[in-house]
Amino acid sequence: MAAWDLLFRRVHLATFAGDEPYGMLRDGALAVRAGRIVWLGAERDLPREARAAQEIDGAGRWLLPGLIDCHTHLVHAGNRAQEFELRLQGASYEEIARAGGGIRATVAATRAADEEALVAASRPRLDRLIAEGVTTVEIKSGYGLELSAERRMLRAARTLGDTAPVRVTTTFLGAHALPPEYDGRADDYIAEVCDVMLPALFREGLVDAVDAFCEHIAFSPAQTEAVFRAARALRLPVRVHAEQLSDSGGGAALAARYGALCADHLEHLSDTGAAALAAAGSVAVLLPGAFYFLRETQLPPVARLRALGVPIAIATDCNPGTSPLSSLLLALNMACVLFRLAPAEALAGVTRNAARALGRVSDLGTLEAGKLADLGLWNVDAPVELCYHLGYNPLALRMFGGQISGAGDVAQG
């Protein structure tokens, strides 16, 4: 048989494939060739003629798919620590936003930064995710709110993906907030997003998906639908920020009508919206960092989503105002403690279901032959420990596209 590039031996596999919660395969092995998984199974079933240029002794560690952070605002300038202090003194998110803070404050800082500065500011956040075994990150625009600044954000995101061992998928979020120069003219701004900004950025190859913030402090369902129509005309997939602060008139259901990859936040999701997501096969992306940071009390309807079979993903929502979180491991713990997800559900939410939320489930998110060899080898006795620990990173080895990027005390032959 042809030689493999690399063979993991003496590992336990949490494949997240099939019907069993973790997709566990104990005492296993996994082979990689040309950047993809080519064989996995029980070690006792390894072909006798199996040969690999490199072998790794997992010594009973757990091998999982590379983690996926499927909702971030990672590229931005500045921070909003002062707003954090104001919220602790009693100001609400809406009050801060209406007073010119919130997203607009980050817009001012981001507009003032050039592309190089945006890359430099964002790289430490990305590096922290990579150090925790993250191999794919979604990065949104939405802090420029005019063409040149949105372009700089998306170009910075592409640069991060080109210069770090991580897959970056970009999302155009021009419909994130109303910029000050369009005060009182939201429809005019949406026309600019749809007719000018999105087509230009799409032509430049900077957009993988399109998002909108459908909420009473942002854009109406009608304005959101105009963005979705523009995306559909370019054959771009859509996603939505919806039902975070209120039942905003059916943002999730609207997205489902457009076959959205996912709807995100969803604390105020109605039964009708949940049913629409189920019918469309859209993913519900839950963001416990924002829930925690804003001290929200309205839980997303996890039981209803489960009952309807809606896939649930988990993400950091890394952003300067409502979730300054760059630890997907901490987001896992929060999802279990705050949202009552089972650890297997939470871990599926940063692997299989996160890949689905990005439209990448065909090559990411599970350990299966033919998938890309994005993997994490963990110093744990059971996968639940990735959700259990606080402030502890048990990653032993990270593999990206078949190449090892970071290894501790793992024996390599």
TrEMBL record:
Q: Which EC class, in a word?
A: hydrolase
Give UniProt keywords alphabetically: Cytoplasm, Histidine metabolism, Hydrolase, Iron, Metal-binding, Zinc
Q: What is its EC number?
A: 3.5.2.7
Which family is this sequence assigned to?
Belongs to the metallo-dependent hydrolases superfamily. HutI family.
The pathway to which it is assigned is: Amino-acid degradation; L-histidine degradation into L-glutamate; N-formimidoyl-L-glutamate from L-histidine: step 3/3
Question: What Gene Ontology terms describe what this protein does at the molecular function level?
Answer: imidazolonepropionase activity
**Gene for this protein?**
hutI
Which one Pfam family would you cite for this protein? Amidohydro_1
Q: Which segments constitute the Amidohydrolase-related domain?
A: 63-380
Q: Which reaction does it catalyse?
A: 4-imidazolone-5-propanoate + H2O = N-formimidoyl-L-glutamate
Residues given in the record as N-formimidoyl-L-glutamate binding sites: 143, 319, 321
Q: What is this protein called?
A: Imidazolonepropionase
Q: Give the protein's function.
A: Catalyzes the hydrolytic cleavage of the carbon-nitrogen bond in imidazolone-5-propanoate to yield N-formimidoyl-L-glutamate. It is the third step in the universal histidine degradation pathway.
Q: Record's InterPro entries? A: Amidohydro-rel, HutI, Metal-dep_hydrolase_composite, Metal_Hydrolase
Record's subcellular location: Cytoplasm
Per its UniProt record, the required cofactor names are: Zn(2+); Fe(3+)
Residues recorded as binding Fe(3+), renumbered to this chain, are 71, 73, 241, 317
Matches recorded under Gene3D superfamilies: Metal-dependent hydrolases, Urease, subunit C, domain 1
The UniProt annotation places Zn(2+) binding at 71, 73, 241, 317
Cofactor binding comment, as recorded = Binds 1 zinc or iron ion per subunit.
User: Where on this chain does 4-imidazolone-5-propanoate bind?
Assistant: 80, 143, 176, 244, 322
